[in-house]
Structure formats: C-alpha cells, structure tokens
Amino acid sequence: CQLAKALAPELPAFEVERALSLVRGWPLGLRVVLLAMRRGLKPELALETAEGLLAYLAYGLPEEVLREASRLALLGEVPEAEGQALLPYAEDLLLERREGKLWFHPLVRGALKTLLPEAEARGLLTKAAEEALDRGEGIRAAGFLLEAGRLGHVADLLVQEGFSWLARGFTYSVLRLLAHLPEALRQGRRALDLLEAEALRQAGRYQEAEAAYQKALRAGETRAYLGLARLFLDTVEPARGRPYLEEASRLFPEEARLLLAENLLNEGRVAEAEALGFSGPRLLLRQGRPKEALARLRESGDPGLHRPPQNHRESTLLRSLLECVAGDAEEGLRWAERGLWEAEVLGSPFGMSLAQARRGHALLVLERLEEAKAAYQAALAMAEGGPARLKVEALGGLAALGDEEAYREMVRLTRTAGDLWVEGFLTLMVALAWLRRGEVFSLPTLPLLDPFLQAVAEAYPFGDGWEDLLRVYPFLAHRTLFSPPVARVRRALWRLGRLPVPYHPGVRVEIRVLGGFEVRVEGRPVRFRRDKARLLLALLVAAQWEKEDLLEALSVSPGEFRVLWWEVVNALEPDRPRGARPYFLRQKPYGLFRQAPELYLDLEDPKAPPPRPSWGWTILFWMRFPGPTWRSGGESFCKALGSRTGFWPCAWIPWMRRS
Prior knowledge:
Layout: H1 2-7, H2 13-22, H3 27-38, H4 43-46, H5 53-58, H6 63-73, E1 77-79, E2 96-98, E3 101-103, H7 106-113, H8 118-134, H9 138-148, H10 151-167, H11 171-179, H12 183-186, H13 191-202, H14 206-218, H15 224-234, H16 238-251, H17 253-266, H18 270-275, H19 281-286, H20 290-299, H21 315-326, H22 329-346, H23 349-365, H24 369-383, H25 392-400, H26 404-417, H27 420-436, H28 451-459, H29 467-472, H30 486-495, E4 509-512, E5 518-521, E6 524-525, H31 531-542, H32 547-554, H33 558-572, E7 585-586, E8 591-592, E9 599-601, H34 616-623, H35 634-645, H36 653-658
Parallel strand pairs: 4-9
Antiparallel strand pairs: 1-3, 2-3, 4-5, 5-6, 7-8
Helix pairs in contact: 6-7, 8-9, 9-10, 10-11, 10-13, 11-13, 13-14, 13-15, 14-15, 15-16, 15-17, 16-17, 20-21, 21-22, 21-23, 22-23, 23-24, 23-25, 24-25, 25-26, 25-27, 26-27, 31-33
C-alpha cells in the first residue's frame, strides 16, 4: 500500500501484507508496526510496541479513566457491563464493540499497560491466566502468563497444546509466544523447535521455516521431515520436496502417504497420486476433467476461517480458476475477490497474491485487459519476498497479454519447481489469449499434458476439423481461458449443424472509422484492388441502401456494381466457396450485418478511443452523393461520427442540402 511505500520502502510486499493482516487494516496500527519493523522487529513482536501511541491516548482523558482503562485493557476484551465507565470515551480509546463486549486493539492495550505498576499488572495477569485455563482458553492463558513473566509455564503450555492452536489458525499468537522464550528454556523441549517451524510455515515465512525444520532435524526431531515435505507442497515445488518425502515415507509411512500422493500430483504423475489415495477437484483438474472438478467444488461446503491458510489449495481460489476454465468467468471473478478477502482475514500473503492472479485470469477472459494487467502486476508485487513459484500464474497472465519475457520467466520457474503440468496449462492459456487477439502463438513441445490440454494443443490454432472437441468439452463454446476466438467457435458450431445460418466464414472482421477508414480480417489489413470497392463498403457501413441509390452514389453500371460487390464480399470472407450466401453483408436492402458477433465496428463501441478522424475518405464519400442521395444515409452517418469524435461535420449538412 502507499503508506508502506512511504514509511518503509525497503520492506518486501510479502512482509507488508503480513503486517497489514495483523493490524486488521488499521492505518494507525500499520504505521506503528512498520516503523518498528524497520528496526528489525518481526511483525508479531512489533505489535507489542506502542511508541507514541500513549501520548495520543492520554491527551484530554481524565486520569481515573486512563487507570480503569489500563486495568481492563490487560484482559484484551471485557463484557460491556464491566466497562461501563469507558463507554463515553470509547472513541478516544479506539475501542470496538463486539457481541456485548468491549475489545482493545493490541497496540492500544500495550500502550495502556505501561500505566500500571509492574507488581499490580503481574497479579492481574496471573489471575486472568488462571480464569482462562479454567474456561479451557489455553492460548489466552499463555498470553497472560507470558506478560506475567511465567515463561516456564508458557513453554509447557506450548508443548502440550501448541500444535492444536496452529490447527485452529492461531499462527501469529504461537509465534509471539515462542519469540519470548529464551534458548535455555527450550533445552529439553525439542518439540518447540518443530512447533516454531510449523508456525513459520503457516505464516508463509518459508525460508525461516526451512531453517527451523533443519534445526529441529539436527536436534533429533525426525518429524521435521514431514514438515519439510509439507513446506514444499505449500510452495508447489515437488522437485525440492521429493528427498524429504522419501525419508518421511521410510520413517512415518502412514502419515507420509497422502503427502507423497500430493507431491506426485504436483509432478504430473496423476495416476500414481490417485493410486495412493489422492482425490478431489485438484486431481480431477489434472486428469483433464475440469467440468467434473467444478461440479465437485460447487457441491462442497464452506470450510470457514477458523483454520490455517491453505495457499493454492483454498477452495475459493480453486473455484475461481475452474470457473474460468469450464464455467462462468463472472463467477470466477467473484470467487477470486472472495478469496482475496479470505486471504486477508487468514493473514496469508501467499493467498492474497494468488487471488490477484486468479482475478487477472477472470478479467482476461472478460476482455477487461487493462484491469487484468493491473491484477497480474499486483500479484507479482505481493509475491515479492515469497517463494519464486508464487509468481508463475501472474507471469503467465502477463505473457497472455503479450509480454514474451514474462513467458520465458514463467517457463524457467515452473521447470525449476518441477511442475511441467502447470507449464503446459499456462502455455495454452497464453496461446489462446494471443489467438483471440488475432495472433498465432508458436506452441513449443509440451511434454506433460492431461487429455483435455492435449486435445486443445492438437486443435490449435482451431482451423476446420476440431468440431469433435466441442462435443466432448461444450464449455469451449463459451468465454473461458481455453476458448478459441468466437468466429472459430461459431464456424465449428455451423459445421456441426448447430448454428442456423446458411454459411459461416470463420473469421473476425474489424471496421474502424474513427481516425480513418480501416478494415481488418483476422487482424490483417484488407487491401482493396478498386477504390470504389472500398467506398462501397464505407457506404454499407453508413446505412442500408436500395441498389439504385448505390449505383447512383458510386456512378457505376449494374455490371460494374456486381464486380465491386463481390470484391467486398470476398475481401471480408476470404475462403468463401462459390455460391455461398455472404455472412457479413446483406441484400434487399444492401447493408452491413451489424448483429454478427464476429464483427467489430468502432462507431458502436462506447469504449473506443475518440481521436479526430482523418477526413480524406469522408470528403470523397460526400463528393460521391449527387442530388438528394445523401438523405439515404449520409446525414445519419455524419451525426454518428460527430457524436463519437466531437468534430461535427454536420455543419456541412445545410450546404449538402442545397447542392
């Protein structure tokens, strides 16, 4: 965010997002935490510093109110009945009211705590810890004991309950408790090293987590092999995870079995993963069954948010991707945005970066290309400081928008990670995005493709003959990441007998009037052999005509008109067989078939840029109107141009009426 760039530009975006999730988006809290992090504090410890905040809170508040607030703030939250005296000052103390309780922000609590004598604070904290333990709230009790200085008791609670706290999503609370334990106190409690490694992994601090697991291994904690295997499953780096999985399988065969299966899936060895018991939407996706995977996800329940983040396994983010592959891209965008919110709540920079990449995919399909680019760039910024593999989807998205260097970097990272399936998936996503823009991407050899991706690769660039693919994967006829251009889809539907038109040319036509008259077919400019053929098309763009009016406007005979007409038809439909009825042009009256989905006309595009047009061809247009013929379409065409460009040649109309 802009505040982070201004206060601590040297901090990686990954760290900033973690700090932002800890302070729950509170700008004042973020400012204090960032300044503390610049001095080297980790974000969970930075929350305990409250420099400058006490002066802000104390300004103008009665002393007795501050004292009562400092006593209650030690508890973190209290029933409203106990905090009645503070309610008139709730705004000054930055209190939050939640379900009948008053809640103190951690930074406010830390600031107020400094007003209490040390002995009194210790007594209140010890009593609060005992009450919390009686209620079964071990993690709150550990926090109170830590502040009371009873570190041995804290260490014992972490050994007994720390892993269950992580399973409930209390990642940063566990890290904060561990950070206060001296090394001497850890001696004889080897489980604490493993607990710290697990917490760092859940927090997305993968380099620190790897070092902590290695430390646990050196201390004889062999379960660290399982942790290292999970780490490289989180970051989707199957090549790095393989040696740890082999050792974990030898020592803990039952626990390692599903981890090994997931790693095999990430390597593209889908049948072996399934044989080991892996199942679910991710398996179906990599088996080339995206529609079934999507159906399975649509039926699944909400896992809630009282859990650790799942990174790329998050069901919302997988749902977003599958909607873009085999469903509804609008839904894909909605699920990506929900996934972004969930990642913020869970404090997962990995999830936030991936959610932005998935937003980019949905926006790419919806042809909101500038927004897609911004989403991919945001994903890359959030991935800074995280695992390199996290950048892959965003790089693939930028490649789909035309960045060839991003494509090369994406390929390098997927091959380093050992995930060749993702390389094939993203390469084909790029190739189809280029094709929809009218460019053919040179497909490399893709060694590891599922049946769906293999069929797409073989059909590319979707000339005639790929119709059977639509029978097997009907979602390709809709807007998805792997859909061919609409012109080729509609031609395939016509060849299957599912499109009620006598002929379909299978091309996209662009006609641009603003800035000069230009015609493109499949992205290539059309060159007319005769100027009057070009003029004829311009007249057909302007309005519908009776044949006699066209003959008069063009000053041609019926025979000459026939030659011009078929030149225009064949220019727009290059491979049209003799005798086939034109698709883009209409007769009786003569005009352009503006309703064709394969036709783009900038005059009808509200988002088309409105440059001042080049009027050379327009002047020629008007000079070709003898007598009253302009009334058949010239005035309406003139007004259409003026409304789009702000340059009103309608001032010429009275002159033309007099001519």
